Amino acid sequence: ADARPSVSVMSPAAARTDHVRRLSMKAAEKASVTIKTPAADSRVAVTSPFVVEWDTTGLSKAAVMQVFLHHPETNTAHTLSSHLLNSGSLTCMLSRDLISGAGYQVTIKAYIGSVSEKPICECVSQPFALYRPLQVKSVETPRLIYLPRGADGSFGFYFDGPLITQIIAGGSAEKEGRLKPGDQIIDIDGKEVLGLSHLGIANLLNASSNKKVELFVVSCVEGYTAYCERLERLYQNYKATLCFQKLVLPSSNTMETLGMNVSTTNGIVSIDYV
User: Fold this and answer.
1) For the chain, which terminal residue's Cβ has fewer other Cβ atoms within 10 angstroms, N or C?
2) In the prediction, which pLDDT does 100 show?
3) Distance between CA atoms of 265 and 274, rounded to whole angstroms?
4) 181 burial class (0-12, 13-18, 19+ CB within 10 angstroms)?
């Protein structure tokens, strides 16, 4: 019988994986990450560039970093970067619908090789605060307006982001009388809306009490003028792409011509190819 010991041979892929694993274990013994910014108790504007800086020990520039923003009390988390080389900094814009307040933290996780493996080290920043700077150009004193929810479920106005664009005839806003096109919403039921997306503002309105909503608004003539000019440009561009064709239909409701069935119903013309 052959008494020679058996020898196992790894495939190239398995050898690479084992090599990465060994490097990770060796690096994990001395690797560390220290977050420099945001600093403890600092205030970060949601609408301004958000900078995260860190120092690392025992990690090369080829290490892969994951950066998260989270709020422990509300258990919310947002990925700032899921695959970033160890450059020492990350600059991004916080464009999500984040609620202003204190207690936010940044978590950085470092990997060697695939991010599907266990991180070799991680670090959590000290708590800091997010806020939205006031961006309203107006000399008018802000107004507090209470609007009841109408029978149709709305508050009687249309909006685009924080800008009021139209008052619905016969709705709650028209009956109250003070809300005007061109007004800018500052907060809804005490919650800031500046910096929120259109969907974020709609969610705040939908979450309001079934009886009424509390709006804090200010006139924003410049913003409304820019909004109307943008709509006019869109309309002119749309008109330039239209192709008009005149159709003369006989008195019957349906006709066959040029390989098409053309019918009219309630003033709507339908064309089906045959």
Assistant:
1) N
2) 65
3) 19
4) middle
Type and span of the H or E element at 137: none
Q: What amino acid occupies position 119?
A: P
Give the span between the Cα atoms of 253 and 265, in whole angstroms.
8
Helix (H) / strand (E) containing 242? none
For residues 133 and 45, is the Cβ–Cβ distance under 8 A? Answer: yes
What are the φ/ψ torsions at residue 201 (nearest 5 degrees)? -70, -40
Predicted model pTM = 0.45
Distance between CA 253 and CA 12 in Å, rounded? Answer: 75
Return all residues near 216 (Cβ < 8 A) that are at least 6 apart.
142, 143, 144, 145, 185, 186, 187, 188
Q: Determine the Cα–Cα distance for residues 230 and 234; give it in Å rounded to an integer.
A: 6
- Mean pLDDT, rounded, for 114-136: 77
